[in-house]
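Record type: monomer structure entry
Structure origin: computed from sequence
Chain ID: A
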Amino acid sequence: MPITPERRARLRRLARMPLVSPRLWLRRLVFWFGATLVSVVAIGFAAGADMAMRAHLWILDGRPWLTFAIAPAGLVISLLLTRHVFPGAQGSGIPQVIASLHMTDEALVARVLSLRLGVGKILLTLLGLASGASIGREGPTVQVGASIMYAVGRRLRLPRVQLQRALVLAGGAAGIAAAFNTPLAGVVFAIEELSHSFEARTSGVVFTAVIIAGVTTLGLMGNYTYFGHTSADLEFGARWAAVGLCGVAGGLAGGLFSAALLAFARGLPGRTGLFLARHPVLFAALCGLTIAACGWLSDGSTYGTGYAQARSIVEGHSTLPASYAGLKLIANVVSYISGIPGGIFAPALAVGAGLGEWLSHLVPSATSGAVVLLGMVAYFSGVVQAPITATVIVMEMTDNQRMTIPLMAAAFLAFGVSRLVCRRPIYTALARRFLAAQTRAP
């Protein structure tokens, strides 16, 4: 039976329908593969980070003095590789993703979100952890996830910039979801921190990527929480004094931390700033010595991401010194300003847990576990100035919904206090500086 022109036209219209279009299904399959790949890479990155930290502790076992050679040498090597082999890989990775969302030059976006740079980000972060630096892998995972999804978008040859932007957002959100095993936090982070908005055109892409990344992580790693399980609760009443105490202290400390990083990013005035600009390698070595000193004074507890230490505090069997929070904060600052790749998410949560444990002695009526969670969310919110993300991350990572209202109250109070110290969110400010530097580059 010959096919009439009318029948041919109906078949063409049928083939263009979203549910049956071969072209759209091919796009969906490639996109789903990309989201799955983000999760697999994040899981592999996490395993590599654990191996790097174990290798560092193995080297120092019985020889703690070696840290004064390993930390400076590792940071110097990482800095040189960052500058000469993987330029643009320095820092967290989240500012780079935010900046890419505001770029109009396609070649510039391709450079910032290149897979080569993503590979360099992973390798150099692992080098930093093996050297004892106090850095996290979550920020780098966001940039790697965005790079993977951007590469998927280019493979699909998407015709609209909005769809490519949606894929970058989806990759960043999937990276957070897979890195922390916190799907809800991935969505909230994409809305509150990366895009600062909720767009119907991009929300479906983000949700789909996070769901696929979450399912992949669940299938490969099982249902787990990074900081274990805690049943801590905070009844309304006099015990809520802990909310105000942690909110103010965490917001102040987090705001000072962010202000310090931004001050170094802008460049210090006078001879100090001139010295740092002229001798970056020497400065990285000095940062390494400071990291080594913090590790020496804390019996090695300030090295690495801080996951193990934060978990021990949350679960109530910590043997960390009272100075842990302060030393970890110092190690985190110098690790970041040294110029090597690495994030601040996990170290910030560890500092917050240590701060909460210390503050719990000032509010004896409240359970120690509850104050620890309040310290975590308050300090983290003070650093990133994203209170909803902070609340959801701490809630999901500790499997505790009982503390949702106190956590949110402490997070928003810390956010307000932090804004008094540091007027702009750290990631937004760093993204603007990165964007300005990239547009000035030849």
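Annotation 1: The chain has two domains: 24-221, 238-440.
Annotation 2: The two ends are 63 Å apart (CA to CA).
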